[in-house]
Input
Amino acid sequence: MYLTYFRFPSEDQELDYIWDNNLNDINVYPFKVLSACNLGKVTFEPITIFPGGNGTGKSTALNAIAEKLNINRDSVFNKSKFYTNYLKMCEIHILTSIPGNSRIVTSDDVFDYM
Output
C-alpha cells in the first residue's frame, strides 16, 4: 500500500473557488462532480472498490487521484482548464514513494484496446 487516503474538495471549497473566480458554475469540470456524489475523503485499504453506475464519478475520482500522484494512464481523459486548480485543492497522504512505472487502469483503458 502506498496511499492511505485522498481527500477531494468539499462542496463549500468548490463553491468558494467558483465564486472567488467569478465563474459560471455550469462548465467547471471537475468541480461539482464528486462533491455532488458526497465523495470527500477516501481511505484506502489493500483492496479499495469504487462502486456505482455509469456517470457516478468513479473514473473522475480515479483520474484525479492518478493525476495528483503523477501516475501514467494510457487512455485520454477529460481535463478542463480548471483541472490543475481542482487538484491543488485535493489532499493526499502517502506511506511510501509510488514506483515510477505505476499506472491507472480503468474500464476505458481495457475497452479502448479490445
Remarks:
- The helical segments are 11-20, 58-68, 83-88, 107-111.
- The CA atoms of residues 4 and 90 lie 14 Å apart.
- The chain has four helices and three strands.
